[in-house]
């Protein structure tokens, strides 16, 4: 009887992995397309928050591809992939801080029309990604990192829409800088969470299989 239960557990795990893989392929495609669209628009808009969001789409595309390659491997391997993603997310956050400072010094005012339009498009793209990945938000560090990336991106897109409205209302670039700072903080916070969880899983795997 216990053997049947074990077999059922294995089947359920396999089905979850296959389901997660399909969702991840869909999200990878969404992010790749959005990177091309937003990266080209960011330069026309002169917006640091759009540039940051576009690079975030690129980073997500790359890390989702790495996640797909790591699936089926040991927890140790998956935790190492999650650690890489966490570190990459932290670097992105620090880069956004630097870009915001650069745009403050150069005093560039972004195009609120392009910011608003791309913010809306990117929001629905990330909302769709987050919904696809919602059921995997309580998995291992690898699954959680994917969910956190999509969730943070959707929040960031809403902030970009608010920033576009702020630029329109004030004629100033400060709303764009403020949103870029919020996005950087979200990235760094998620980065620390993913790094802590992945390191915990790596230590647990080592203790279990010395």
TrEMBL record:
Entry's localization field: Membrane
One Gene Ontology MF term: monoatomic cation transmembrane transporter activity
Residue ranges occupied by any Cation efflux protein transmembrane domain in the UniProt entry: 24-201
Coiled coil region boundaries: none
Record's bilayer topology term: Multi-pass membrane protein
Keyword Transmembrane belongs to the record: yes
Keywords: Membrane, Transmembrane, Transmembrane helix
Cellular component terms (Gene Ontology): membrane
Bilayer-spanning residue ranges: 23-45, 57-75, 87-105, 111-134, 154-171, 177-195
Cited SUPFAM superfamilies: Cation efflux protein transmembrane domain-like (SSF161111)
Primary location: membrane
Protein name according to UniProt: Cation transporter
Source organism per UniProt: Paremcibacter congregatus
High-level lineage: Bacteria, Pseudomonadati, Pseudomonadota, Alphaproteobacteria, Emcibacterales
């Amino acid at each position: 009887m216990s053997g049947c239960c074990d077999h059922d557990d294995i089947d359920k795990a396999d089905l979850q992995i296959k389901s997660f893989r399909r969702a991840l392929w869909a999200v990878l495609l969404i992010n790749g397309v959005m990177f091309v669209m937003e990266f080209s628009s960011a330069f026309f808009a002169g917006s640091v928050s759009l540039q940051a969001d576009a690079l975030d789409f690129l980073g997500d595309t790359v890390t989702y591809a790495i996640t797909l390659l790591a699936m089926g491997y040991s927890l140790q391997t998956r935790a190492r992939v999650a650690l890489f993603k966490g570190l990459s997310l932290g670097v992105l956050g620090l880069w956004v801080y630097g870009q915001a400072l650069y745009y403050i010094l150069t005093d560039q005012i972004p195009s609120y029309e392009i910011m608003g339009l791309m913010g809306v498009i990117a929001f629905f793209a990330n909302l769709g990604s987050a919904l696809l990945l919602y059921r995997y938000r309580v998995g291992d560090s690898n699954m959680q990192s994917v969910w956190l990336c999509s969730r943070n991106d959707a929040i960031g897109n809403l902030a970009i829409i608010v920033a576009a409205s702020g630029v329109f209302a004030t004629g100033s670039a400060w709303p764009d800088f403020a949103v870029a700072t919020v996005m950087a903080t979200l990235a760094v916070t998620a980065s620390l969470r993913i790094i802590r969880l992945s390191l915990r899983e790596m230590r647990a795997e080592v203790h279990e299989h010395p």
